[in-house]
histidine kinase (mine drainage metagenome), 434 residues
Amino acid sequence: MVRTLFAKILLWSVLAQLVTVATILTLATVYLPESQQAVDNAFRLYADTAVTLYERFGSKALDQFLARSGDDTLLRLTLSATNAGVRCGRKSDTTTGIQARGQNGSYCLTVRAKSGGLPESRESRRTRLQITILLELLSSLGLSYGIARYLSRPISDLRQTASRLARGDLSARVGGRFARRRDEAADLVREFDQMAERLAGLVEDQRRLIGDVSHEIKSPLARLNMALELARRDAEAHAPRQFARMQHEIETISQLVGELLTLASLNAATARPLDQTVDLGALVAGVLADMAYEQPGRADDLHFTPPAPPLLVRGDKALLARAIGNVVRNAVFYTAPGARIAVRCDENGPGRVAVSVQDSGPGVPEAALDRLFDPFYRVDDARTRRTGGTGIGLAICRRAVDLHAGTVRAHNVPPHGLAVVIDLPQVGGEVDVA
Ligand SMILES: Nc1ncnc2c1ncn2[C@@H]1O[C@H](COP(=O)(O)OP(=O)(O)OP(=O)(O)O)[C@@H](O)[C@H]1O
Ligand SMILES: [Mg+2]
């Protein structure tokens, strides 16, 4: 089954040329023998006439006939009597002999071309036709390849770039490869690049805005916190519940601003040093120990299967711990106490490792699975507000994993529950202790 545009154009172009060649071949096989036959018949007629003239009127009449016919046809004609066993047939490209029978014996009319060659024999004509067809097929194949490549290249480049954009690489462009081309495909490529440029600009503006606003809020928030502390010292006794509430809200906002700043800094970071060699199993165990400390009531729900040989990845230890921690925290927060949370760390195909966190909570609607990793996305606002989530945890996770050339995906598991799988490139070498 041909599925690429290139292969389809190539196939159709070759087919079209094959049909053309087959048509020429059919015409040649139908008409060429006829024209050959006509030449053969003419020579035979000369030979019969020459023999009759010779036998009836003698050699003078024969010579006159041969001379006149020869002048008219640019041929040199000679008639000779043949004995049994003497070959009378084609001798070279310029000479042939035609056998004719008379009343007194058999004769051979030798036909010599005065200039050029005689019409070709059927065999050599066929060989020449076959070579021509072969050459035609080869050149048509080359031409078809060129046409198919020319037509399909912008589309396949466009497809690759679109899929890079869809994976979040906002720098993806088809580029100036088709700058000198003037057709609809090249226009499409140019317009696509312009659209990608504009899109990347908008996303970049949005990211910068989030980063800038968070940064601007940070200082007044710190001052507010200090002012609250001072006010608390003097007047907490008058309104202890209100002060506690204010403190809680300030902490929530501080946490949100902190996460937003982390996300903004991760988005801006492309040249962050990711050069530590990290034992992934040990890292996951550490994240789970922290979680158990944070939520002692849920410690028994966390089940970890460590990898047998250590699995190493290269990157930023703190960032990886944060990415995995956010997933584990979600599993704890969005499932009821007692619900089993299985964490695994395994090899995942050649040169890859995966950390999977599978809970037995409610899962998420299928349509929401891809959006979980978008900033501020929350499946159910009311439920999440109760648990205090802001919708940034998984966005930070995805960005951190992206920076490590990895992928993160979520899927629902039967009978109910969510599994989040972080896939990373594996490396060999010594673990960095830091
Ligand atoms: N294990 C899970 N089970 C069910 N829903 C989940 C799970 N993990 C994430 N979600 C849903 O995905 C949404 C996004 O998660 P994310 O971690 O990005 O944000 P959050 O937990 O709401 O806030 P925070 O920024 O504090 O992590 C959550 O609001 C929740 O609706
Ligand atoms: Mg979360």
